[in-house]
Amino acid sequence: MELDPNNAIVKLCAKGMDIEGSQPEAASRLFLQAWEEAGNEVEKFIAAHYVARHQKTAVEKLKWDVRALALALSIPGDAAKTALPSLYLNIAKCHEELNDRDLARRNYESGLSFIDFLPDDGYGNMIRGGLRNGLERVSTGAEGLR
What we know:
Layout: H1 8-19, H2 24-37, H3 41-53, H4 58-74, H5 84-97, H6 101-112, H7 122-145
Helix pairs in contact: 1-2, 2-3, 3-4, 4-5, 5-6, 5-7, 6-7
């Protein structure tokens, strides 16, 4: 998804990303500000994705990741499809952390169904690997519980 570097919401999120390692609370406030100021689905999706990263519990993170996914799915065309594998990965990891292997498995599988939209680079490879490893982990774990 191409983002306009002059967009106010993109600027807030970029500023938050610049400081999130050293000033996580300030970054979190910037991401929430972006969410509050977002005026359309694309801006809301971007902001929700970053707000999710700063949640303290898996339940809260899941809530924001699901919100970001719903917004991404509402964006027409293929523009947001590059983000879908990552969003499904994040949601699956939350379900896994919450010990819901079935929902985790379904979300890992959903993410894998969109991997053709990922770039062929380090980022794309990381997301592909995360989805495949997660699916293997919950599939193996689920069989071990039977």
